[in-house]
Design a protein that fits this description.
Layout (H helix, E strand, L loop, with lengths): L5 E5 L5 E6 L4 E4 L4 E4 L3 E7 L11 H13 L5 E7 L5 E6 L4 E7 L6 E4 L4 E5 L3 E6 L3 H6 L5 E6 L3 E7 L2 E6 L4 E4 L4 E5 L3 E6 L3 H6 L5 E6 L2 E6 L3 H14 L8 H9 L5
Antiparallel strand pairs: 1-2, 2-7, 3-6, 3-10, 4-7, 5-6, 8-13, 9-12, 9-16, 10-13, 11-12, 14-19, 15-18, 16-19, 17-18
Length: 264
């Protein structure tokens, strides 16, 4: 069973989650997400997520599970924060870019969540962080997340991060929701995830939305984000390329600033 932790989420656009640990309780987190902690909390780098699983608790079992994380683009190691002091202690983890932190109670969500590869932030120790292979060839090739996604299993609390605003939607049996592939954050195990061609040649070539979108078939719960990190990165790169000429101080650069409303 996962450790039973309490938490508080603070902030609006750049949130952080503060986890309250009783003595000997532990939280695990991705490398680089740590923000601050009280004295009396011990930090330790571990292989994988520290959970007990079917692959065994020996060194090779831990190494195998940690190695799977590399396939999802994550670090080989995670960090465990344990309250070794007296009384309650608090440790905080910050979001990596503007967006929202989502608290997921796996016990109330069927014990399993499938998520995009870079959305996991932290969890109670005992939550298993593994990989989920897409069973359908088309979904893996064109689904935006590839063949491998992340899965969270267990009965504890897990915290995900998503870009922009987050919308949670409960799908009824037989209900279908069509979503941009990059906007999917996570979904419960009963949701069927597939991809569909965008209809119409003009839509595919000039629509600017790509050739595919995801179809989510209920029943189940899904979480979607308004600002995928890939979209944010693309806009930043595009904006930087357009502004190289403006920074040269030329007359044309100044005129461009006026035309797009930036001023001199």
């Amino acid at each position: 069973m996962a450790h039973d932790i309490d938490y508080f989420i603070y902030g609006e656009e750049m949130q952080y989650v503060e986890i309250e640990l009783d003595p000997q309780e532990t939280a695990i987190a991705e490398a680089g997400s740590f923000m601050m902690m009280q004295d009396g909390i011990e930090m330790q780098t571990i292989f994988g997520d520290g959970s007990q699983n079917a692959n065994g608790s020996g060194f090779m079992g831990k190494l195998l599970n940690a190695g799977k994380r590399i396939l999802t683009g994550e670090s080989l190691f995670m960090t465990a924060f344990t309250n070794v002091g007296q009384g309650k202690k608090r440790v905080s983890f910050a979001s990596p870019y503007p967006g929202k932190i989502i608290a997921l109670d796996l016990a109330a969500l069927g014990g399993k969540i499938v998520a995009q590869k870079d959305s996991f932030l932290c969890a109670a120790k005992g939550v298993s962080v593994g990989i989920e292979f897409q069973r359908k060839l088309g979904t893996g090739l064109f689904g935006g997340e590839g063949f491998i996604m992340q899965k969270l299993e267990g009965d504890g609390l897990a915290f995900m991060h998503a870009g922009g605003h987050v919308l949670a939607r409960e799908l009824q049996p037989g209900e279908v929701l069509k979503v941009d592939t990059g906007c999917i954050v996570a979904y419960t195990k009963d949701v069927d995830y597939d991809i569909e061609f965008v209809k119409g040649v003009r839509n595919m070539i000039f629509g600017g939305e790509g050739m595919f979108f995801a179809t989510l078939h209920g029943p189940g719960k899904v979480w979607m984000q308004t600002l995928p990190i890939s979209r944010l990165a693309s806009r930043i790169v595009s904006y930087g390329g357009l502004n190289r000429g403006k920074e040269s101080g030329s007359v044309l650069g100044g005129l461009g600033n006026l035309l797009d409303g930036d001023g001199f």
